[in-house]
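Saturday, quiet lab. Running sequence design on the structure tokens for the scaffold JK sent over.
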């Protein structure tokens, strides 16, 4: 790749000058309170030509600000930035004529078809008519969208929209491709497809690509990785060089007999003086020991557990760097919560007793289209139950029926002892709901939102006031803060607090960690684990397959059909040799089912 040719025939790599050079780069915005906020704090780095380079970091790290500055959409307030040999402040138009930029929310025209979107972007970029046919055919083949060119973009699944956005970005061959979290919010199959397209374009076109990503497995594909947090660069290097920072500090532990891996993970992550990070994986727990702590200092945390060393991963180095930077000045321990009970469920949990959710032959049709086809499963009290599937699989429709937000076409659906097809309003009083997108009132304060939703759930007077103050303390929320100005992680925290005000027996979480950085995800799941221990039943959808490891059981859907149901371990075993982890197991199960569907008499030629 270092000797690939760009679209102008110039040799990339080797001794070619860097395509991006930043020196002491500063960018300041006005914060929500009117005070200046430094998004970039004097950063300096270079990006070599002909390489796949990653920017990684949590929310607020400065990645998108930096991307927009490189694209010539923002000007620096200090320092210098050279892109493709041009000053970004003086020659923004020249830079924009040579780059392609795919922001997080790529602007597809949803009323236009796939082909019309491609034609429009080719017009905007001045792609000659004689080059379009071959270019379009190649992009449509790579994205597997050739069969759907007449379909309106608004009718595509999330994964298909992202692939179309990437195709529109690549209607011309740029000298630099900028991708700002291209796979956020899409399922593992679509993520894999997107990265195959990117890597194919790099191999064939010799593209220089700068990508920001929240997924460390994606960053590990890159030749060089730059780690940012709070506007500062913490480290840079090859994935191997960064992994070397945690050599000898990474372990895996098997939980005690009968203990969920998430309970061991909670025990470890609650010891921040000795543990950098812990996360369930493959029925065990991966964790990182603090460099200053001896291995034998962990004995009391691992009583009854088998622990052994493991090979370090890029995410281990990422978490070590983030923790160290976050703790500079004032170390913080994870929020343990207050003493207030979050549910009226009590310690109801386990295999015994009647299920709290019963689904039998559930069907939902929209006209001639069947979104959910004869799905059946139960959920036990106190369980964490994961509902997984590719974009467009029918899981959101199933989720909305379980919440009472959408009526079923047929079948039996019982939630908390109430037949949801007959008395949805009664069931809603027993459940809490956290939407994927922040759905509270942005112009109200934290307390005003909580008091409003508490009243909507029937809480009044002193009971409401006491509950609101207790839950503010439990979730470490500032009652006077304006909700719309909260960081994304705190918005999700507020949404969960609002959903738990009335002490529900069941909590529905629709992709609760989408767009949240790894530190916030760990804290969020620590709260979910505690809720389960208190007896709350959790129903969750997620595109982060590692989060399925927190669940007692998971269901995988595709094309409205239930493909797999069981514990994470059982699902991995069902996937066979390809199911080494939950991500690969998910892909294997969905692909196997689609292959069988195509070979059935009268089956579809393909599944979109």
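Result came back. Writing it out in full:
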């Amino acid at each position: 790749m270092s000797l690939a040719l760009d679209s102008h025939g110039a040799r990339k790599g080797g001794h070619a000058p860097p395509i991006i050079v930043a020196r002491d780069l500063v960018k300041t915005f006005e914060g929500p309170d009117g005070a200046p906020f430094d998004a970039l704090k004097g950063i300096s780095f270079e990006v070599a030509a002909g390489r796949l380079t990653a920017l990684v970091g949590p929310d607020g790290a400065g990645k998108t600000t930096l991307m927009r500055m490189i694209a010539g959409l923002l000007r620096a307030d200090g320092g210098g930035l050279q892109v493709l040999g041009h000053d970004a402040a003086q020659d923004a138009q020249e830079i924009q004529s040579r780059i392609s930029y795919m922001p997080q929310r790529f602007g597809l025209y949803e009323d236009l078809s796939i082909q019309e979107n491609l034609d429009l972007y080719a017009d905007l970029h001045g792609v000659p008519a004689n080059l379009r046919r071959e270019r379009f055919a190649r992009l449509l083949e790579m994205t597997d969208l050739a069969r759907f060119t007449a379909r309106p973009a608004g009718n595509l699944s999330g994964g298909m929209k992202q692939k179309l956005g990437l195709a529109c970005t690549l209607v011309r061959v740029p000298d630099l491709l900028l991708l700002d979290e291209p796979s956020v919010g899409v399922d593992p199959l679509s993520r894999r497809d997107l990265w195959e397209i990117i890597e194919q374009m790099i191999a064939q076109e010799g593209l220089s690509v700068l990508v920001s990503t929240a997924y460390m497995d994606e960053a590990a594909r890159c030749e060089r990785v730059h780690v940012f947090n709070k506007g500062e660069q913490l480290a840079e290097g090859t994935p191997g060089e960064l992994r070397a920072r945690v050599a000898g500090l990474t372990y895996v532990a098997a939980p005690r007999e009968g203990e969920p891996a998430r309970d061991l993970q909670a025990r470890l992550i609650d010891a921040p003086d000795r543990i950098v990070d812990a996360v369930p994986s493959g029925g065990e727990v991966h964790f990182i020991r603090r460099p200053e702590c001896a291995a034998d200092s962990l004995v009391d945390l691992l009583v009854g557990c088998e622990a052994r060393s493991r090979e370090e991963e890029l995410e281990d180095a990422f978490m070590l760097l983030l923790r160290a930077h976050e703790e500079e000045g004032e170390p913080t321990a994870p929020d343990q919560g207050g003493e207030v009970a979050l549910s009226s469920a009590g310690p109801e949990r386990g295999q015994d007793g009647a299920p709290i959710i019963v689904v039998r032959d559930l069907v939902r049709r929209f006209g001639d289209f069947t979104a959910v086809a004869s799905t059946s499963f139960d959920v036990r009290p106190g369980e964490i139950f994961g509902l997984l599937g590719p974009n467009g699989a029918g899981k959101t429709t199933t989720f909305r029926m379980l919440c009472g937000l959408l009526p079923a076409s047929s079948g039996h659906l019982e939630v908390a002892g109430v037949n949801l097809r007959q008395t949805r309003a009664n069931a809603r009083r027993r459940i809490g709901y956290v939407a994927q997108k922040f759905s509270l009132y942005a112009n109200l304060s934290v307390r005003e939102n909580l008091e409003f939703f508490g009243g909507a759930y029937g809480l009044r007077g002193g009971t409401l006031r006491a509950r609101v103050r207790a839950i503010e303390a439990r979730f470490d929320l500032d009652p006077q803060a304006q909700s719309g100005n909260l960081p994304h992680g705190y918005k999700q925290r507020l949404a969960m607090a609002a959903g738990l005000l009335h002490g529900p027996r069941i909590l529905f979480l629709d992709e609760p960690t989408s767009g949240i950085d790894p530190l916030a995800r760990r804290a969020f799941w620590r709260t979910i684990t505690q809720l389960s221990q208190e007896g709350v039943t959790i129903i969750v959808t997620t595109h982060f397959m590692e989060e399925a490891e927190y669940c007692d059981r998971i269901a995988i859907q595709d094309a409205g059909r239930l493909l797999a149901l069981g514990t994470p371990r059982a699902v991995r075993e069902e996937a066979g040799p390809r199911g080494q982890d939950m991500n690969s197991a998910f892909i294997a199960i969905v692909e196997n089912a689609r292959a069988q569907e195509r070979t059935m008499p009268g089956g579809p030629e393909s599944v979109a």
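Notes for JK: DSSP finds 18 helices and 24 strands in the chain. The longest helix spans residues 188-205. Ask whether to fix the surface positions before the next round.
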